[in-house]
Amino acid sequence: MSDNSPLNENLYQTTRQAWEAIWDNADVAQEVATMSYARSQRTLRQYTAFLNKDDLILEAGSGLSAALVALRAQGYRVIGVDYALNALRASRRYDPTLLLGAADVHALPFAEGTFGAYLSFGVLEHFPHGMQPALQEAWRVLKRGGVLVLTIPYPNWIWQLAQWRRRRAGKERIDEDFYESTYTREQLVTACQSAGFEVLKTYTTSHEFTFWGVHRVFQAQGYYRTSWLANVLGAITRVIAPWQFNFMTLVIARKP
User: Coil, strand or helix: which one is 40?
Assistant: First the structure.
């Protein structure tokens, strides 16, 4: 369900402006390096199993193009779009040969049935009006049999505790001008099915990173690197409590 109220429209615009500020201070090389981290490689292997190298693939909300760079290195044909122009410019400075364009994921400048796969990594949780309009646009630009690859933050128990503490302090979000939500597995499956997709797989991912923001003991030196302790706890929770400590849910769906 979506809500296009004036309040949500204002929050949508302030969130967009926040992303411009975030990307102003970001480093493309650092972002690209995160794709070599163990947690990223595990996720990469999970979804590339569903991609076809003969297809044209769209990453919608490509940011600093880290996934784009990693996929192209593996031989995939990928186009990236984003509404943050500074992220696109930074990506192009890093690699002028990247195929990039400025576009909003709610109104993509592509014909119906253009792509064999649509990738969205941590994007649709930032829309206060909900993910349904973007999913419907994803459906439109995918060809029949095309694959949707979607990652969205999960309300694990650490997130729930942080949310409870914020509400006790009278706050709904860390930053009132920046929107970010979480979705349960059931909510994600329902949203994808409502847009017409057939859900093939749901995976839990990045359990070690669930601990990263809890305390610096879980942080290693470097850009968003997790410590050995976080890595050990991540490996354990992946087995004994996969959903309770899930950081991002990976959904694989298909357009029938």
Answer: helix
Identify the structural domains of the chain with CATH numbers, from first to last: 6-206+246-254 (3.40.50.150)
| Residue-level length of the chain | 256
The CA-atom distances, in angstroms, between 164 and each of 168, 172, 214, 239, 244 are: 6, 9, 15, 27, 16
Distances from the Cα of 157 to the Cα of 131, 166, 185, 187, 244, angstroms: 23, 14, 14, 17, 6
How do beta strands 248-254 and 198-205 pair?
antiparallel
Q: Distance (Å, rounded) from C-alpha 199 to C-alpha 172? A: 31
CA angle 55, 61, 66 (to 5 degrees): 75
Q: How far apart are the first and last CA of the chain?
A: 22
Q: What is the pLDDT of residues 194-252, one digit of tens each?
A: 999 999 999 999 999 999 989 999 999 999 999 999 999 999 999 999 999 999 999 99
